[in-house]
Amino acid sequence: MADDQGRGRRRPLNEEEPSNSRGSDDGPRVKVFRGSSSDGLRADPRLESSRERGSLEEASRRGSGQQERKPRGDQYDYLNTRPAELVSKKGTDGVPVMLQTNFFRLKTKPEWRIVHYHVEFEPSIENPRVRMGVLSNHANLLGSGYLFDGLQLFTTRKFEQAITVLSGKSKMDIEYKISIKFVGFISCAEPRFLQVLNLILRRSMKGLKLELVGRNLFDPRAKIEIREFKMELWPGYETSIRQHEKDILLGTEITHKVMRTETVYDIMRRCSQNPARHQDEVRVNVLDLIVLTDYNNKTYRINDVDFGQTPKSTFSCKGRDISFVEYYLTKYNIRIRDHNQPLLISKNRDKALKTNASELVVLIPELCRVTGLNDDMRSNFQLMRAMSSYTRMNPKQRIDRLRTFNHRLQNTPESVKVLRDWNMDLDKNATEVQGRIIGQQNIVFQHGKVPAGENADWQRHFRDQRMLTTPSDGLDRWAVIAPQRNSHELRTLLDCLYRAASGMGLRIRSPQEFIIYDDRTATYVRAMDDCARSDPKLILCLVPNDNAERYSSIKKRGYVDRAVPTQVVTIKTTKNRSLMSIATKIGIQLNCKLGYTPWMIELPLSGLMTIGFDIAKSTRDRKRAYGALIASMDLQQNSTYFSTVTECSAFDVLANTLWPMIAKALRQYQREHKKLPSRIVFYRDGVSSGSLKQLFEFEVKDIIEKLKAEYARVDLSPPQLAYIVVTRSMNSRFFLNGQNPPPGTIVDDVITLPERYDFYLVSQQVRQGTVSPTSYNVLYSSMGISPDKMQKLTYKMCHLYYNWSGTTRVPAVCQYAKKLATLVGTNLHSIPQSALEKKFYYL
């Protein structure tokens, strides 16, 4: 394996050319096929329709965008959604605190600006690299800090004339006339502004000798080897630079790339050698893997395995047929050892979506290193613990790493020169911002209320508090299924459950017991069918381990076929020393699955419906996904919810079935309250920043129009609506005196974006590592409430997730939606029975 990787050359970071989407042309070009293969290369029949005739080199040039350039700024999303009537998005409620961040200010001169020019050559030059070479002869005139992609020129220098004409000569001694036409100054509100800033940053980071893998920078020289699991961790940085409220800020987050020391070829060799099963088994183990090719440091997703081709297959390259073996030897000095291995197919979906074509990349298995973790690895406690010792950095460790990064940039001559060429200077100290800590919220139980506590954890209060609502008859008709050999563990579990539930006000009567004599999946399913004849309110299954197939079958039988809530408990759980604490949590879950509420919060707003929506892809079919919507029915007298699920496209960010789901929730609310809600807060999860424009222009406007029509149907004015995008995967970090800030910490200035009505909220407490704030972007609001109330309402909603007696990172309706969508996409693969819509069956 070491020899395999030693044969490839890694590509150094090179971001000189803005036009290249993933690096410089100096790196090797990928093998891209659009059309039918040449005579020597047999095409996979499934790919035949998406290919056009063309040589390898021509296709790769098309793939890199050298003929038709698209601005890289497309990946930076700028959308002005800040309401014009919003004077200030800053709140005032709470205790002010000074927080350190992982941002550094880029200081510029007061008159600093980026000038945009368009460059033409006469006679015309087809090759962009030749254009760059000819223009580089005038670097002194352009200023040492400039960016040129072959057509567009960006610099800080403004020429006096609108059109500046220069002359240049190529290495072939051909004279050219260069016309540099002034286009304008780039506003900080334009995507191109972000594009240029990030290119400047990448150029300055070249001096750190980091390597570009995907979109982030990593340091393989500082790799951490975890040899017992055949893995490596590459430390690196995720960086972004953009205009924030008042300054241009560089955001830096510490990240790690998980690299396995095995190749796809190694995985293939482990698969069954039985010819009848080999190809199917290879596809099961290989498809959808993310791999890294060391010779160009690019990552790909494997979409197919072509057993009809081998490295001996040929393709047309520069007018002649060449085999993959010869190509890699000539191009990269890499010898392919096994000439009979099949080839891998990767479809570049991002490019395919932009060009309406299929960009297909052919890869060699023994040159593809596997990245990331599979499900088996994630369930390996020893492996995850070994990794977390390096990846879960506490605040002090993270701050030290950020200072080291800043120090390296400040003291690397190449990096300093690039920033100075652009009249920029990086602040040596991390940016500080004034935040606020919202006061503790009260948790309402049946006979009183208690403060959530400084750590927002009220688990201990269940010792002397009763749950808010419980069934009047208790849990009187239910069943348990358990293997005969685990009868003792079943007795232990039930005894603890009776005691824990009794203290919380839930009376649990003795269940109907179904004893089975083996732990096969089919046996549990048959026992559930037997249980269903007595119409139980709930079925508890005691299982020997976390077998995914058994779990999915139990859940599918209960939720899709029978409409009976189920609870699955493992034998290992019953042997835990903290069984009473676990029994308390199980008791809360049972109460929720019956449709009742453990606790609620104090909410002053009447007529409010909060909605959470999220999407999860199907693990069985990547083309399918399931969208789950959770809506609160009552948050003042009781805390009840309605859920619904629908199938949607895995590739469409817009949920076309969203309105029918909202309409179902509205009608359920109307049935319960005899009126429609007067206020709706919609928390939209599962959206990337690049999809905000689509969301704002289509989904938000569609919801507004449909709500107006729905309320007009019953002669009512439209409800007050707030549409808020929730983003969990943020690279922002806050520190309070070198520690994690407490739950309830709000940041709504300095590092927020001027074009948005947004804020950050730290709502949860973490026991390990650094806490991650959640970003909330109010795309639309007619609520008429102050930023203080919007922030406090959002924090209150984080107290209502009944699978955990503490606050969650996102509002409970979002967490419920994610839980339900994941359950359906991973285990059920079908829509659950509508009779369960008012129960928390998905907990």
From TrEMBL:
Keyword RNA-binding attached: yes
The keyword RNA-binding is annotated on this UniProt entry: yes
CDD domains xrefs: PAZ_piwi_like (cd02845), Piwi_piwi-like_Euk (cd04658)
Any GO CC annotation of this UniProt entry: euchromatin
InterPro entries xref list: PAZ_dom (IPR003100), PAZ_dom_sf (IPR036085), Piwi (IPR003165), RNaseH-like_sf (IPR012337), RNaseH_sf (IPR036397)
Biased composition (Basic and acidic residues): 41-75
Protein family: Belongs to the argonaute family. Piwi subfamily.
Protein name, per record: Piwi
Designated gene of the protein: Dyak\GE13110
